[in-house]
Amino acid sequence: MLAAFVAVGLLGAFRYGTDYWRYRGFPPPRDPAYVQAKGTVDKLTVPSPALGGRAQEVYVYLPPGYASTPNRRYPVLYLLHGFPGRPLAFLETVRMGVVEDSLLAKDEATPVILVMPFGSTGTFTDEEWANGARANQDWETFVAHDLVQAIDARYRTIPSGAARAIAGLSEGGFGAINIAFHHLGEFSVVESWSGYEQPDKLRSIFGKDLRLLPRNDPASELPQLAATLRAAHTYVWFYSGTTDPLRGENERFAAALAAAGIPHHYFEAAGGHNWALWRIEATAAYRAAAQRLAHG
Description:
Elements: H1 2-23, E1 40-48, E2 54-62, E3 76-80, H2 89-92, H3 96-105, E4 113-117, H4 139-154, E5 164-169, H5 171-182, E6 189-193, H6 203-206, H7 218-231, E7 235-241, H8 247-260, E8 264-269, H9 275-280, H10 282-290
Parallel strand pairs: 3-4, 3-5, 5-6, 6-7, 7-8
Antiparallel strand pairs: 1-2, 2-4
Helix pairs in contact: 4-5, 5-7, 7-8
C-alpha cells in the first residue's frame, strides 16, 4: 500500500513538473467560446544543408480556413524561441494560436501562417541563432534560407519578403534582428520581444578569439546598413519590460534607429523578462506583423 501511495505521489509530481515546463504555471491554452474555427498544427522536419544535413524539428500553425480556401496564399511569421527554449512554447505558453484564432473570429486581423523552428541541437544548447565558428552550425542560414525555402515549397505562402516577418523572444529577439540585418529584404517586419542587440561573448559560438562577434552585433552594424534597411522598407517592432535588465540596451537601439531614419516602434511594458509579459503582449505582436505584411 505504501509503495502504491509513493508511486501515485511520484506520478503526480512528474505530471506537475511536465505541465509546469509546458505551460510555465499558466493554464493550458484554450480558445474562447466565441471561436468557431480553429487553426491546426503541423509538425515536420526540415533537412538543412547549413547544418550539415541535420533535420530540424519545426512546428507550423495554419490559420483557421487554410484548408477550405485552396486558392488563397498567406504571409508568414517566423517565431524564434529563447534559451533554454523550445518552439512549442509559442503555442503552449505564449498562446499564439489562441491569439490568432481569437483575432480572426472577431475579424480584427488578417490570417498569417506561424512557423516555429527548433534552433539548436538540444533544449539546453545555446546557439544564438547565429552562424557559428564550428562546422555545420550555420543557424542563421538555416532560418533565412533552408527553412524559408522549405516552407514556401510546402505551404501556400506569398513567397516574398514583403509577406514575411521574423520575431523572437529573449535570445530569439536577438536572432530575429541579427538574421534580418544579414538578409535584407528577406523579412519586411522584424520583432524582438525582450531581446537584445549586442551579442554575448560566447567563444563556443563565435570562436576562441571571438572573430565572428563583430559580424553578429546589430547595434554596431546598424550605421552601415541603414541606407539598405530604409530602401528595403524594413520595419522594426520591439519592446522591453520596465524592470528588464536589457531595457537600457533596447532604449539605445531605439534611439539609433530613430537617428538612422529606420521605421520602428519601441515601447516599454510593465513587467520583467518573463513569460507573463510575452503572453500579455502576444496580441500586439501578432497585430504589428499582420497589419504590415502583404496579403493574398
